[in-house]
Amino acid sequence: MRELCRVRRMQRMAVIRPDPLPLMPSGRRRQKTSLLDTQEEVTQMLPDDVITAAQNALALIFYLSMPIIAAATAVGLIIAIIQTLIQVQEQTVAFAAKLSAVVVILMVAGAGMSSAMQTYAKAAFNNIPNF
Q1: Backbone phi, then psi, for 125, in 5-degree steps?
Q2: N or C: where does the chain have the smaller number of CB atoms within 10 Å of the terminal CB?
């Protein structure tokens, strides 16, 4: 009786795992294949490649964000000077003016920005085999 309880306890604790290598119709097990077996050479990305890719990405980010930041800064400065002269300190006026300036810049330069991002993405994906 004790033996039967011990066996049942062991069965409940046992974890049933699926067979990692299923049987083929002939009854033999399939052989493990590795992706590395098909490749002739495994190369790693060099630090210079990583630095170049990061520099290109940062230059693109700077190029795309500069017009928006410049417009928001210029409009904010002009609104701040005007508010100082007329002694009205209203935050929503400056925010609305900066928001409208950013929207105008995005409408004017949005197509060029998206084409620059597409060009960078295509170049990055095309350079993957070279790394």
Answers
A1: -70, -35
A2: N
- What the block records as the tokens of 119 is 């060009």
Residue that wins the pLDDT comparison between 14 and 82 = 82
Q: How far is CA 39 from the centre of its chain?
A: 28
Distance CA 113, CA 67 (A): 10
pLDDT computed for residue 1 by the predictor? 64
CA 35 to CA 1: how far, in whole Å? 52
On whether the pTM is more than 0.85, the answer is no
Numbers of helices and strands, H then E, in the chain: 4, 0
CB atoms within 10 A of CB 71: 20
Distance (Å, whole) CA 30 – CA 49: 40
For 36-51, the pLDDT digits (tens) are: 555 555 567 788 888 9
Q: Which residues face 29 on adjacent strands?
A: 23
- Backbone phi and psi for residue 88, each to the nearest 5 degrees, phi listed first: -120, 120
- Is residue 119 within 8 A of residue 104, CB to CB? The reply is no
